[in-house]
Hints:
Elements: E1 2-6, H1 11-22, E2 26-31, H2 34-41, H3 53-64, E3 69-72, H4 78-88, E4 92-95, H5 102-105, H6 109-133, E5 138-144, E6 159-164, E7 167-172, H7 180-199, E8 202-208, E9 210-212, H8 235-244, E10 258-263, H9 264-276, E11 284-289, E12 292-295, H10 296-309, H11 336-341, H12 349-360, H13 364-368, H14 392-398
Parallel strand pairs: 1-2, 1-4, 2-3, 4-5, 5-8, 8-11, 9-10
Antiparallel strand pairs: 6-7, 10-12
Helix pairs in contact: 1-9, 4-6, 6-7, 8-10, 8-12, 10-12
Amino acid sequence: xxxxxxxxxxxxxxxxxxxxxxxxxxxxxxxxxxxxxxxxxxxxxxxxxxxxxxxxxxxxxxxxxxxxxxxxxxxxxxxxxxxxxxxxxxxxxxxxxxxxxxxxxxxxxxxxxxxxxxxxxxxxxxxxxxxxxxxxxxxxxxxxxxxxxxxxxxxxxxxxxxxxxxxxxxxxxxxxxxxxxxxxxxxxxxxxxxxxxxxxxxxxxxxxxxxxxxxxxxxxxxxxxxxxxxxxxxxxxxxxxxxxxxxxxxxxxxxxxxxxxxxxxxxxxxxxxxxxxxxxxxxxxxxxxxxxxxxxxxxxxxxxxxxxxxxxxxxxxxxxxxxxxxxxxxxxxxxxxxxxxxxxxxxxxxxxxxxxxxxxxxxxxxxxxxxxxxxxxxxxxxxxxxxxxxxxxxxxxxx
Length: 399
């Protein structure tokens, strides 16, 4: 298949490009390299050093025998995006090109406005470009389990049967997002569903749980990034980074918040299954993508045990929760569709976390040099701005 990955330079995108290439797919990619800008704006960097995009493309060509067709573009540049899709003519388009950070979106008005504009307008641009340039292609759009919030009901895969005043219907499950970022993803989901209804596009909306894990290769140019700052470091990646520098891991609040998790390797397997089993013409379907449900405290103890296996003493230091979220709640999401397509979870979380810490230990000085970026500063309930968050990076994007 010919697979076009929007956001190919990111944590998931660069990993997915290699995973699919190993399976024999032809890869095209687009990126504006904004993840690098955003993390720099937060005063941080990738714990695992990553190569420049030119070095990455050269390594890709050397290892996979075919150079990736790379398009340096922002999805909001509709003309450039349409031309890229018309040239590449993909069978599948994977949309990973969004700002994926709840804390980043909660800093202040400018950041909330930027995240929603970047994500919603970029997705709209992609939908119209696919309609005009590759209407038969299958869109695999990365959503998030955070769209659902934490309802006091089991969470279905996108839709549920409801009876009201004697009538029944199949309706989208209500969304209860918890950040301006998560609301942008809700808007995206509705827009993708409408495009399928309106134009007959085919789409799979992947409601992904929290992803953790490293992707390290003997050729360091193939390494994917791993962020640990408060905005772009997912919780388990951040905990592992704290462990390797001797900083206690920091669960927020009671630590009883429960979420769905899966490893980077399992995410690749799930996305591949979605790509290789496309939706029907006009179909909008939803896959909940997770392996297991764990609490934040569960994660802290997994990291403590993994650290001890490497001879590290890992403390646990709960912090006041900077977010507005339920501490204790029901959380039972369905995840049947991907398992029916053949998803089989790989290594258990404790083995993956031990391997992660092993991959991070050679870079402990690099992480320690930015240790102040691990603790939360963005408070959900008030406007908050720091000198690092008024950098030229964001002003350049907003201009």
